[in-house]
Amino acid sequence: MQYRGNVLFRVSFRLAQQSDVQGQNGMQGQNGAQGQSGAQGQSRNAQALEKGMYIHMNSYTLNQLSVGMQAAFTVEITSERMERFYEITGDDSPIHRNEEYAAARGYQGRVCYGMLGAAMFSTLAGVYLPGEHCLLHSVESKFVKPVFIGDVLTITGTVQEVNEVFGEITIKAVITNQNGVKVTRGVIKAGVAK
């Protein structure tokens, strides 16, 4: 959830199963009433997500941010995402690439690249909190539990500190799977335009 003025917004994107993509963008006011964007907006979100783009980029400046602000989105780990990550990084570890090897090591399937999940921290800061006025300074990640193909991850960030002297915010980030199990923790430090 994120605060913009007196209105609380909940941003949620979910890549549905069978490579069918749906986007949601709901709002929740302080009175707890919820609304949803129209079907046309959801369709645009779905098309943008299918192409790997996000069209609802926030644009908070440093003076608009405060401790406790929060944003979240969801994404499904697919074999296609794993393959694209391999193509970019060249990480050919059999734990990520070979089903039989992973099973012999006691896993239910190929283990998702930890950095594929942690890369979502860049999306969290660069698109949602704070958004376009962000430049990452550092990201610390701790991989708590393995992630597998088919897992639906929720990436959530909460502003922990706003440092006006250095023009930097600290975000506590967490990634949970579809069962609510925490799989990755992170601390993000980002410069933000004033």
The averaged pLDDT comes out at: 79
Helix segment count?
6
C-alpha termini separation: 22 Å
Strand order of the largest sheet: 5-7-8-9-6
Uncertain runs with pLDDT below 50, 5 residues or more?
Answer: 1-45
Largest β sheet strand count, sense and barrel closure: 5 strands, antiparallel
Find the structural class using helix and strand composition. alpha+beta
| Spatial shape | elongated
Q: Strand portion, in percent?
A: 35-45%
Number of DSSP-assigned strands: 9
Q: Would you list the SSEs in sequence order as H and E? A: EEEEHEHHHHHEEEE
Radius of gyration over C-alpha positions, nearest whole angstrom = 17 Å
Helix content: 10-25%
Description:
The protein is elongated. The protein is built from 6 helices and 9 strands. Residues 1-45 have low confidence and may be disordered. The chain has 194 residues and is α+β, with helices and mostly antiparallel strands. The strands form 2 sheets. It has a 5-stranded antiparallel beta sheet with strand order 5-7-8-9-6. It has a 4-stranded antiparallel beta sheet with strand order 1-2-3-4. The chain has helices spanning 39-50, 79-89, 94-97, 99-104, 114-118, 120-128; strands at 2-4, 7-15, 21-28, 34-36, 70-76, 134-143, 152-163, 168-176, 182-192.
